[in-house]
Prior knowledge:
CATH architecture of the largest domain: Orthogonal Bundle
CATH superfamily of the largest domain: Tyrosine recombinase, N-terminal domain
Number of domains: 2
CATH topology of the largest domain: DNA polymerase, domain 1
Largest sheet: none
Order of helices and strands: HHHHHHH
Structural class: mainly alpha
Radius of gyration: 29 Å
CATH class of the largest domain: Mainly Alpha
Amino acid sequence: MNRLNRSDKPDWVPPRSARLLDQVRERVRYLHCSLQIEKVYVYWAKAFVFWAARSGDEFRHPRDMGQPEVEGFLIMLATEKQVAPATHRQALNALLFLYRQVLGMDLPWLQQIGRPPERKRIPVVLTVQELLGHADVSTTRIYTHVLQVAAGGTVSPLDALASTLALHA
Length: 169
């Protein structure tokens, strides 16, 4: 039973529709997933079938395709299209849904397909000069001096710390 759908419905019911994309829509709705998930899974199922047709010169049903086609599609996304890791995972999850939930095929090799690693995000630390967009330090000093005078002599905590250190020195 689906963990989100706590009812007396069986886990897998064969789809009533004859067309593949209608079967995907039917299954997503059966599991009470969002409309956005439905759109995304239909998009990736369609992209997979069209990619396989372009690669093999004929349309084939995903039931007739296997590991080489799925891996080839995911590799094409990562190398040629250079999609983000999140997009790659989204496509992989859509194909997992297609094979498991729609076609009712539990393929053990689908679990071993590699997922792309998350990109490391390096924080960017900007100086006051870079934040203000000034070309040189003297412009930044004049700007901050004018701000201190115009704002009634606003003192930063660092200025207070510097003045106490000067008194003790």
